[in-house]
Write a structure and sequence with these properties.
CATH architecture: Beta Barrel
Shape: elongated
Structural class: mainly beta
Number of helices: 2
Number of domains: 1
Largest sheet: 8 strands, antiparallel, barrel
CATH topology: Porin
Strand order of the largest sheet: 1-2-3-4-5-6-7-8
Order of helices and strands: HEEEHEEEEE
Distance between the termini: 26 Å
CATH class: Mainly Beta
Number of strands: 8
Helix content: under 10%
Length: about 210
């Protein structure tokens, strides 16, 4: 279904247009914002995929992408204090890293400011592949508690939001794209309708045109 959607977006309105096909990859700096996020921190990860850019004029083009994108968040805690209702006997620090692996489809309009710089804006749809949670013991003195890792299927749970960013052409085949994504789908819909929680990500990509 996703490949069909990408092919449709890539081939629609192509008659008489200049078409560019390329590959891209880069870094994510992601987290979640909203309710129940106290102590939540951003985490680094990455993304990679392909894109098709359709040029309608010198000032406007449409870029459709199909990406694997690793997002998520991390936080630290003292599990021993939590288990003893806050009473701390000897600190045991743990870092929990939650990795949310998505298949994302951004559909971006690109507006040229000059020959090398463009503003891009549009929707993004994400389908959760899986969630990987890693709990790491930061207290190396206590070796009785091993590192822990669990994987949960994502069942293609939908996430959607808005992307805004820039595209800077380095040369005819290479471009750098910094962008910001904020989710519009409440991640806590199943818990309480009054709680709001959304994905956010800062991305920096290198785009390479194949033809």
């Amino acid at each position: 279904m996703l490949l069909s959607l990408f092919c449709f977006l890539s081939t629609s309105n192509l008659v008489g247009q200049d078409i560019n096909l390329g590959v891209k990859g880069g870094l994510n700096y992601s987290s979640i914002v909203g309710d129940l996020t106290e102590g939540i921190k951003f985490r680094f990860s990455g993304h990679a995929g392909v894109f098709v850019e359709s040029e309608f004029s010198d000032k406007f083009s449409l870029q459709s992408e199909l990406l694997y994108s690793s997002q998520g968040f991390q936080f630290s805690s003292d599990l021993q204090a939590l288990e003893n209702n806050g009473a701390t006997f000897d600190e045991n620090d743990f870092r929990t890293n939650v990795q949310l692996n998505y298949l994302t489809v951004p559909i971006l309009g690109k507006f040229a400011l000059n020959d090398r710089l463009e503003v891009e804006f549009g929707p993004q749809f994400g389908f959760l592949l899986n969630q990987v949670s890693k709990i790491k013991n930061l207290d190396q003195r206590d070796e009785t508690i091993p590192d822990n890792r669990t994987t949960t299927p994502g069942n293609f749970q939908l996430d959607y939001g808005v992307v805004a960013g820039l595209a800077l052409d380095i040369n005819d085949v290479l471009a750098i794209e910094p962008r910001f994504y904020i989710g519009l789908r409440n991640r806590l819909n199943g818990l309480d309708g009054t709680l709001l929680n959304y994905n956010v990500a800062i991305q920096v990509s290198a785009n390479y045109l194949l033809f």
